[in-house]
Amino acid sequence: MSEVDAKFVHRGLWTNLEKGPILGKTITTNLSTGTLVIALLAILSSLATAHVWHLAAFAYHQIRANGAPADGLFRQQQALLRTLPTPSSYLTDSLKLWWYWKGRADSVSLRCTLQPLIALFFTIATLAASISSSFVVDTTNLEVLVDSPFCAPVSPPRGSPFSTVLTYMTAVTDVAQPYVNECYDNNGTSFPALCSAFTRPDIPLVNEAVACPFNASMCVGGGSTPAAQIDSGLVDFNSGFGLNLPKDQRIKLRRKTACGILPLDGHTKVYSAEDDVFKIRPPLPGEQMIEFNYGNETDGSQFIFSLSESNVTRTYGIDGNYNFNPIPSEMGRDDAFLALLLVQKNAITYKVPVNDPMFAAHVPFTRNNSAGTGEMITEYYSDFPYSVVGCAQQFQFCHARKSSSEFCTDLMSLPESINATFPEASALQRVLFKNIVMAFSMLEISRTHALKAAQLVQPGGLVPSLPDDQWRAEILYWESFVWAALQHQIADYAIGPAVRDTTGGASKYVGNVTTEAQKQLCKVQKMRKAGGFMNINVFGLVLITVVALLAAVIDITLLRFLIFLSRFRKALAPRIDRWIQDGVLQLQRRAYEATGQGTWTNLDADVPVTVEKSVFEELPKEFEPKRTKTGYSFESQDTVMIREVMDGKAWGVGDSNERLMELWRSRTFVNDVPDLRSKR
Fold it and tell me: Which superkingdom (predicted)?
């Protein structure tokens, strides 16, 4: 089956219950919208890591800002932290500090180790956050929800002939058979593209040898385990078939099929084609017919074939029958759904004898090599052109209940009444059970039309060889077909049987969706889509957005909050002030003051400004304090008048001395101004 058509994909918000009600919130959207979301997530993740880095740098600066005397390396590290560089820039700048300060300060290597490690960690974290944000958006092999206007059950009118649904069954068989070949027999290797339509490519099956499912005399081969049993175990329809049902609506299914090769003696009859009452053409001269009967005499024969046709047919064939009443003493079972399969081996030949009980071939025939070399070769014909297999199919159904534990039936045949068999099932569960029973009644094991051995047939009807247990592989192959057909039929309810059946005959068997349960079942089918859409995980999207915005808000408002808080908690004030004073603009202000340029205000803010408009010269690379008659000049905030006194006026002369003392008494940071009076 090819993947679901884009027009049947639900767009918008839905919940993938397999991942939970919170983590499963999903938005399915087109590629253009999804690309924008990916870009937005990359920006948000980068924004989040950047602001978290700012907070980490601020915290690290504040831990170190204890006000104790320190060397130049410490002061430069603090100034570097205050600039809030990116983690990668901080990493390289920290290495530069280590390089230039080694041998000039104590324990440089030790003191320059932690900073690069922190920066490296945040650099990696930034890259990881950007990459991981892309996992919020799935772009390939998506699980999508089916939303089709053609959703409907296969529900032929009661009493309608089998031909009513024949076109649909043929359409399902045409896709299920190649699906089995590709997806049910890959020996655990990677699945091809054909298998990517369903949420689970195949249903695991267990093949084991068991006792005869009928009377022991009805299984060829002898021994205690002459039959093959294929058991699926309980398959949850959420995980196995992609249904998106809540826990209290879930159902499970188990199918166990036991098959044995039936004896031919006493169950076949050969007669002239002239006596055949079911003639479909004029008989050939001397043509004989063979019939097989494993039921009551009133049922008539289950199979009738022409031996003449069989003798000239160089291909395998298979036919099935489930509409018969078995002889109770031979195959009677009340707890199983019985089916017969007839394998037509016809005139197939083998290069070597075959001991497999289904394909037994020991009749030699020697002929000339077709290459014309005159060489004689020996091939082997089947011991008998037909083999018959009988199968007992059992089912076990389970469904969740709101008020109590899970309910499970015993192994049984297909139920005749859904309501009587599942009295506590919800309306949705009953609709689903009805669909399952309908699917199995249409395509059970007798409906298979292929043999695995047919894949080995060479031109001219020659098979190189077959293993002794080929018959067991065939039974597994048939049972795999049944499950593959069920996978397609379950999905067809949501997509619409009319979409698969393109013959125009769907109106004969497609029912109406009228009840709420039927409508609900239309909206719970998940399938896979290789491309064309994107799934956005709502939880991941919200988480990244909230974390990014929260980190940004905290980073932007934290300093202002701490400044406000420092008015009431004086212990915070010195550390916060050191953060401000280590800022680039405050350091620049100090440098200009040191060269006697500008009268500054706004000392306690991030941005200091001059009192009046000023023009500044470039700062010199080196600066030495000027020696004057009265002492050294130290330029700082509001020190213009000090410089006037030092340049031309003696201490204690007129108003200059009074102005200087007034300025001295008005200083906020007294320790920043040297005691000029000691230089007199």
Answer: Eukaryota
Q: Decide if pLDDT at 655 tops 80.
A: no
C-alpha to C-alpha distance for 85 and 74, rounded to whole angstroms: 17
Q: How many residues would you count in the chain?
A: 680
Helix (H) or strand (E) holding 235: strand 235-236
Angstrom distances, CA of residue 61 to CA of 71, 77, 296, 576, 587: 16, 9, 95, 10, 16
Same domain for 632 and 554: no
The DSSP-derived string for 515-565 is: SHHHHHHTT-BEEEE-SSEEEEEHHHHHHHHHHHHHHHHHHHHHHHHHHHH
CB 368 within 8 A of CB 474: no
If asked whether residues 218 and 313 sit together in one domain, one would say yes
Is pLDDT of 665 > 60? no
Residue at 51 is within a domain? yes
> Is residue 506, in this structure, part of any structural domain at all?
no
CA atoms of 457 and 252, how far apart (whole Å)? 39
> What is the 3-class SS of 380-400, one letter each residue?
EEECCCEEEEEEEEEEEEEEC
Residues 228 and 364 in one domain: yes
Count of H-run helices and E-run strands, the chain: 19, 23
Mean pLDDT lowest among 27-41, 283-297, 561-575: 561-575
Cα-based distances in Å from 248 to 24, 25, 200, 242, 409:
17, 19, 22, 16, 17
CA distances from 143 to 4, 139, 196, 503 (A): 11, 10, 10, 30
> Residue 329: helix, strand or coil by DSSP?
helix
Q: Is residue 576 part of a domain?
A: no
Residues 312 and 415 in one domain: yes
Domain termination site, one of 447, 462, 483: 483
CA-based R_g, the chain, Å: 44
DSSP symbol at 263: P
Give the count of domains, the chain: 3
State which residues form the domain around 132: 6-144+539-558
Residue 326 backbone phi and psi in degrees, to 5: -65, 155
CA distance 141 to 200: 12
Cα-Cα-Cα-Cα dihedral sign, residues 268, 274, 276, 280: positive
> DSSP readout, 8-53?
GB--EEEE-GGG-TTTTEEEEEEHHHHHHHHHHHHHHHHHHHHHHH
Question: Is there a contact between 252 and 284 (Cβ–Cβ < 8 Å)?
Answer: no
Q: What is the pLDDT of residues 311-342, one digit of tens each?
A: 999 999 999 998 888 988 899 999 999 999 99
CA distance 658 to 664: 10
Pairing, β 317-321 against β 303-306:
unpaired
**Residue 493 and residue 499: Cα distance in Å, rounded?**
10
